[in-house]
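The records we work with from here on pair a chain with its fold. These numbers are not coordinates but entries in a learned vocabulary of local backbone shapes. To see the layout at work, look at the sequence and tokens printed below.
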Amino acid sequence: MDYTVVMVTYNSGENLKKTFESILKQKEIPNELIIIDNNSIDGTIERLLDYKKKIPNFRIFRSKINLGYCKGVNLGVNLSKNQTILVLDHDARLVKETWIEIAFKNLRQNIGVVWGNPGFLNPRDYGEIFISSAFLIKKQIFQEVGMFDEKLFINENEPDLTIRMNRHGYRILPLKKAEIFHPYKPKDARYYLYTLSNRLLRYWKYYPYWIAILMSIFYALQEFREIKNSKFIRYWLKGMRRFFSNLYWIGISYKKRMGLKEFFQSAYQLRFPSFGYKLVKYLYHLKN
């Protein structure tokens, strides 16, 4: 059972200990582990070197600049020698010793990604959009659909990839039994800067223009109304500035925009946006 673990680190520090312990506890440990470090300055590299003795074919690539999560993962996947890749966040843990075995069994021919449930999400509610800090992919399929969009830098890259996976005929499979632990993080400055802007950019990248306009207004205002700490208003503003700065570069310039029919098909398949899913379900009398 050959597979590569790809991990992107940036000032990961103490978080690495339990992550690596969960890898080494697997009944099937990886025969290759690739670390892409985004210029950490907190001793992350020194900690990684301690683990290098325990896993065969452990490679560390240290960038002189912060490449971002998306580019880091893409680089690690391209460098891997195996065709099956476990992408793992630096602070995530595989709960069961059989996690890899379960994931391998479910990575069938038309499955592009299998992802672990972090506990606070119900995979059924997310359709085939995956939001995970631990997921198994087929290298060939990942490359075929264009990998992560590096212009996003970080956050919302999984939903973006999901749309392209589905358009190529591949499914995203949530695994309830493949549980992972990943600390829940409340909305912070990075959320407003990247998640907010990247989600809006995804609307403009794929959806019909009038739907993108409506959803952008609704989502931006919703996020603003939910701000509980006034200090985050400036980050919301920065997120909106990033959105407008990248609107053409990431969004409008993408040529393969959905028509209305494909949009509703996608909404039902992904269960997002919810109004599209509920409308299709109502019109066709579909059950969960």
